[in-house]
Specification:
Layout lengths: L4 H5 L2 E2 L1 E2 L6 H26 L3 H29 L2 E2 L5 E2 L1 H22 L6 H24 L1 E2 L3 E4 L1 H24 L3 H24 L1 E4 L15 H35 L12 H10 L1
Antiparallel strand pairs: 1-7, 2-3, 4-5, 6-7
């Protein structure tokens, strides 16, 4: 007995988020942690910089590290594990690139809006809302770039939950970038940020349902073809992570020297200390 046409059109295609087991989530978590740690390191240099140019350079690096590596890279690697049974998967390169730009821009705007440690909670919350909205936009733009052979629909409750996670995670991340000042604290903060990024992604993916029947004419780039750019970005992330790890101990040791030689009631970031000179030199 054949199924009515409406039932066929409304049928749900089987899809998987963990096609390669835990490989993609673990790799995504690693990139999220690396990008978060590097971004926190760059934010630390931005706070120590004496010039506006130095602060701008380090803030942009923080946005690229957190938004590009920690958020977008995690999203893309996790998406490689998303498959639909009996259908091909392809990516629209323009929308994929747009999702990357959204992630970096969202973090960058959030950093500027939140205003740092002394700006107060209203600006921090506004920055978190702006950054969270950008992260949500990045995720669903990235999903719009994926041709699945079927029609992708979303559970609105889970979409709202993913948006809430994104806003909360963004607000916490922006607060971390403003106050975290030690390597051990940065590692802990990066771990919290990376878990939040992964949680937001898979909350959003849990909202996905793919409806059939599958089409055969899926246009775009195969995710396997995009593995080479992923590997290149991975090398960039690793080099950036090494830079952040190697740079942080020098700041720690100079910061300790500054704190012992200055008035304990003064904020050492408000004056041109050795930490400032080190940050400015590294930013040139």
């Amino acid at each position: 007995m054949t199924m009515p046409l409406n039932d066929v059109l409304a049928s749900t295609l089987e899809h998987h988020h963990f096609t390669y087991g835990w490989l993609n989530p673990v790799m995504g978590l690693a990139f999220a942690a690396a990008g978060s740690f590097l971004g926190l390191s760059a934010s630390r240099y931005a706070r120590a910089a004496a010039s506006a140019g130095g602060r701008l350079r380090w803030t942009l690096l923080a946005a690229l590290a957190i938004g590009g590596v920690g958020i977008w890279m995690m999203h893309f690697i996790a998406m490689v594990g998303f498959t639909v049974t009996g259908a091909d998967i392809a990516y629209d390169p323009a929308l994929t690139a747009a999702s990357f730009g959204l992630a970096v821009a969202a973090v960058g705007i959030g950093l500027f809006v939140s205003g740092g440690k002394r700006a107060g909670w209203p600006r921090l919350i506004l920055g978190g809302l702006v950054c969270g909205a950008g992260v949500v936009g990045m995720h669903y733009t990235g999903m719009a770039a994926v041709a699945t052979g079927g029609r992708v629909v979303y559970d609105p409750v889970l979409v709202a939950a993913s948006a809430a996670v994104a806003v909360v995670a963004s607000t916490v991340a922006l607060r971390f970038t403003a106050v975290v000042d030690r390597r051990g604290s940065m590692a802990l903060a990066a771990a919290v940020m990376s878990v939040a990024v992964v949680g937001m992604h898979y909350t959003g993916m849990a909202a996905v349902e793919v409806q059939g029947p599958p089409r055969e004419d899926v246009s775009g780039i195969s995710p396997l073809v995009l593995l080479l750019p992923i590997l290149i970005l991975a090398m960039i992330a690793i080099v950036g992570m090494v830079f952040g790890v190697l740079a942080s101990p020098a700041l720690d040791s100079v910061a300790r020297d500054d704190s012992t030689s200055q008035d304990g009631n003064a904020d050492r970031n408000d004056r041109p200390s050795a930490t400032v000179r080190l940050a400015d030199a590294a930013g040139q």
